[in-house]
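Example record used in the benchmark description.
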Amino acid sequence: MAKNIPISILELAIVTQDSNASETLQKTTALAKLADALGYSRFWLAEHHNMAHVASSATVVLIGYIASQTQNIRVGSGGIMLPNHAPLIIAEQFGTLEILYPNRIDLGLGRAPGTDSLTAQAIRSDFFEQSQRFPQNVAALQTYFSKDNATAKVRAFPAEGTNVPIWILGSSMDSAALAAANGLPYAFAGHFAPKVMYQAFEFYRDNFQPSQFLDKPKTMACVNAIASDTDEEAEILSTSLTQMFLNLIRNDRKPLQPPVASLDGIMSEEEYFHVNQMTSCSFVGSKKKLETELKQFIDRTRIDELMITSPIFNHEDKLKSMRLMKEVIGTMK
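Model output (structure tokens):
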């Protein structure tokens, strides 16, 4: 049987139709405060660029603000796209956050640009070279955090000696291999790329090498989760999620759309196939339905933690979904 495992939030700060970045960040803060009050474990924010309807591009700034507005919940990145940045700068930034908010900061690292190729080049002209150097840059980041770097000519102040947990994030076997080889916790992006998730978790566990950071594997899956009083209500709310992924594959950069009563006629068979493949790791329904499905998922994946993301159009519906999801996890033994 599934155990009562920690549950966390991945928040993309998506701007809804007829809203703006200011309102979105106010809502994001309210979400974080509720997650903190409900006992959620982590509140992570994702780095995206050149997306008019995603308000989390200055991820480190937002992490600091959310940490200042909450009390106990861990706040971090899901993730920082390391090829966009010099490891020294990330060490300085997250070391500073750790000093300001002790034992509450997480550093999730990804290899992707979090944007399109043209913007990736605008962020860093050698992005594609740096993406190939991801393992080396992770190691460099760990060195900057280490007390052993005290005699080096290049040091990261005030990060040196701070304890900022590093997670490897990914949606492929490469990320699983890197996390396993380095003895780091591993989080999989099941909310948009679930195809090899089970295989990646198995590979990670089978090849895990104990380290100073972990003595045994530690896994987390991120999934889409939309809860409401009835299955029917939740299904309607989830049509915003479906439209979001449809617009993504169409490269139609719209804000998050309101739910619709039916998706009939909205997409072609080919589009339906791709959207369904990307969103197959989604949990939508009432508490009763979600309890059954999530127990099966946790048993099958053997994850240590669950992270959810909930692209719900109406803010009150999203807050309600968060409350219900916490109750669902709380019932698991």
